[in-house]
Amino acid sequence: MNEEKSGDRKMKCGDESKCFELLESILDGELQDSSKEVLSEKLAKCQPCFEHYHLEQAIRDVLKTKCTKQAVPTELADLIRQQIQDIK
Amino acid sequence: MSEVQRRKYSQEEKNAIFDGEFMPHIDSMYNFGYRLTFDGDDAKDLVQDTYLKAYRFINSFEQGTNAKAWLFRILKNSFINEYRKKSKQPTKVDYQEVETYYNSDDVHYQSTSDLRAESVKDMLGDEISNALNSLAVDFRTVIILCDLEGFTYEEMAKILDIPIGTVRSRLHRARNLLKEKLQGYAQNMGYKTDADEENID
Ligand SMILES: [Zn+2]
């Protein structure tokens, strides 16, 4: 996170489409194990990958933590149980 | 094994499954319904309908499997079959929009915005929610399932009755659309984007 300098990273990605698909799958928790090494290497060497990864991560974080939630109407659970009683 | 699974549940078992495995998801179910319909009463109807169906078809639920995914699939189908038919909203538009999007090309993963991670982190809950709500329902749905509810691609494929590859590409497109919306907000609010630095308006 603290690595904001881009000096050691190449500015053009060799295969953006493939890289981004991989990064997004990793962020979605779909690839484990070996992908961790691939990930850190990509982030260290490629600026577009680095930026894409952090943007995609931020999007996921805010969706998860900031989306407004509706409170369930208090009577809903009882209403459902009542209806189930009726068809039992 | 399969014979055990196929047997019918006793009344006690039904009650235990319903209370122990189904009811704890009422919060997520209600919010899913609300995010699909944007209406509290409709969300309530969808959730009630889902739980009644879940009880009626409880014998087809395999105990120990993912109850939340099973319930979400029922709610999604209720929404498509009943709510969408009844509602006056032109439902075909969503599908057409999605269809042309899919048929346009194979997914090419690319960065489609100048949005920065820092600007996204600074955004308000309302902005994030509004951006999500503005997406067509099929795109909105994959983001809800993945990012808000934490389902895996495989679970999403089952809930939505689509192949995993379609889940992946639809998610990618949904997030790109979301980023476009967020970028619009960012520019209006004066958050920094790369574009701002290149040409100051
Ligand atoms: Zn790269």
TrEMBL record, chain A:
Stated name of the protein: Mycothiol system anti-sigma-R factor
Protein source organism: Algoriphagus ratkowskyi
Taxonomy of the source species: Bacteria, Pseudomonadati, Bacteroidota, Cytophagia, Cytophagales
From TrEMBL, chain B:
Ranges in a coiled coil: none
GO terms of molecular function: DNA binding; sigma factor activity
Classification via Gene3D superfamilies: 1.10.1740.10, Winged helix-like DNA-binding domain superfamily/Winged helix DNA-binding domain
GO biological process: DNA-templated transcription initiation
Keywords: Sigma factor, Transcription, Transcription regulation
SUPFAM superfamilies in the cross-refs: Sigma2 domain of RNA polymerase sigma factors, Sigma3 and sigma4 domains of RNA polymerase sigma factors
InterPro entries noted in UniProt: RNA_pol_sigma-70-like, RNA_pol_sigma-70_dom, RNA_pol_sigma70_r2, RNA_pol_sigma70_r4_t2, RNA_pol_sigma_r2, RNA_pol_sigma_r3/r4-like, WH-like_DNA-bd_sf
The keyword Transcription regulation belongs to this UniProt entry's keyword annotation: yes
Annotated ranges, domain RNA polymerase sigma-70 region: 25-88
Location of the RNA polymerase sigma factor 70 region 4 type domain: 127-176
The family this protein is said to belong to: Belongs to the sigma-70 factor family. ECF subfamily.
Name used for this protein in its record: RNA polymerase ECF family sigma subunit
